[in-house]
Design goal:
- This protein has 5 helices and 6 strands; from the N terminus they run βαβαβαβαβαβ.
- The chain is α/β, with parallel strands linked by helices.
- The longest helix is centred in the middle third of the chain and has 28 residues.
Length: about 190
């Protein structure tokens, strides 16, 4: 089996939140290989910019704090302004998991993981979905985790955020099917 490009994303514009490293960077590279134009959005602008520069003129970078409504809107607006449309959103942003039981977990660590992993997907979608619909439809993909389906020890916030993300995708898929928008979650692991 080859891993050759198919150009199936030719002409598409995709915003990737959490694109600066790891799975997000791999998604960005693959989208470019498949012919898309992409926005590498990340809380940490420097590595997102390095990635976009390495990917060439079909890529751009912007700073985005997915937990902040104004920052989320700004990233979506930047994508639409830069390439004239928006056809897809990938929410890959996640906070580092805090190793703790529900008894030991600090409330601020709980809120941070839920805000980045789940509320961030909500905020990015809130602004991206209307633009994707205006482009004639497209796709929203949430990068979840196997721990959104099965539990592991000392990861209550992470498991809860990823489980919520999976069900957010299901609810949005039902709501936005009439807009020709597919919404899916991936669960690596």
């Amino acid at each position: 089996m080859t891993d050759a490009a198919t150009n199936r994303l030719e002409g598409s514009v995709i915003l990737i939140a959490g694109a600066a490293s790891g799975i997000g960077a791999a998604i960005a590279r693959r989208c470019i290989t498949e012919g898309a134009k992409i926005i590498c959005a990340d809380y940490d602008l420097e590595p997102a910019t390095r990635l976009a520069d390495a990917l060439g003129p079909a890529a751009a970078a912007c700073q985005c704090d997915v937990t902040n409504i104004d920052s989320a809107k700004s990233a979506v607006d930047f994508a639409a302004k830069k390439f004239g449309r928006l056809d897809g959103l990938v929410h890959n942003a996640a906070a580092p998991s805090t190793s703790a039981t529900v008894v030991d977990l600090d409330e601020s660590a709980w809120r941070h993981e839920i805000d980045v992993g789940l509320t961030g997907a909500f905020l990015m979608s809130k602004f991206a979905v209307p633009l994707i619909a205006a482009s004639g439809g497209g796709s929203v993909v949430f990068v979840g985790s196997q721990f959104g389906r099965v539990a592991t020890t000392r990861a209550v916030a992470y498991c809860a955020a990823k489980a919520g993300l999976i069900h957010l995708a299901k609810a949005m898929a039902v709501d936005h099917a009439p807009d020709k928008i597919r919404v899916n979650s991936l669960s690596p692991g």
